[in-house]
Design brief:
By secondary structure, the protein is an alpha+beta fold. The protein has one domain. It is built from four helices and four strands. A four-stranded antiparallel sheet has the order 1-2-3-4. The chain is elongated. The N and C termini lie far apart (61 Å).
Length: 126
């Protein structure tokens, strides 16, 4: 059966076309949810437990963005559900002459659910 005849047959039976479209829609939705679940598992089991290993890289990128030298004492992650919270301790900001400009004993942040939906980085206070 050619593509033209199958399309012609589908127009004769609209219920069949609707069922096929519904199957595709459900399949795509299940695929999307499956990808979200895999991403969440990778985040919680592969990335976040090793966040302190990336402290140097975080310091370098934040220093370049801020124009000040940043030093972080420790980075930890608390996960109480779908959205993890990052906790950084002993943050020190220094100027170009290595003088301490600002010291924060603790900073805690969590990704906002709105930021995940908007694909933008927005932080909410914990």
């Amino acid at each position: 059966m050619s593509l033209f005849t199958s399309a012609l047959a589908a127009t004769r039976r609209p219920g069949r076309l609707l069922r096929a479209l519904a199957r595709w829609a459900v399949g795509l939705m299940l695929l999307a949810w499956g990808l979200v679940l895999v991403a969440w598992l990778v985040l919680h089991w592969a990335i976040l437990p090793h966040i302190d290993d990336w402290r140097g890289r975080i310091e370098t990128q934040a220093s370049a963005a801020l124009g000040l030298k940043l030093s972080i004492g420790s980075v930890q992650v608390r996960s109480g559900g779908w959205v993890p919270a990052v906790e950084m301790r002993d943050l020190r900001f220094s100027d170009t002459r290595d003088r301490e400009v600002l010291r924060l004993p603790m900073v805690s942040a969590a990704l906002s659910a709105r930021s995940l939906l908007a694909f933008e980085l927005r932080l909410s206070s914990c």
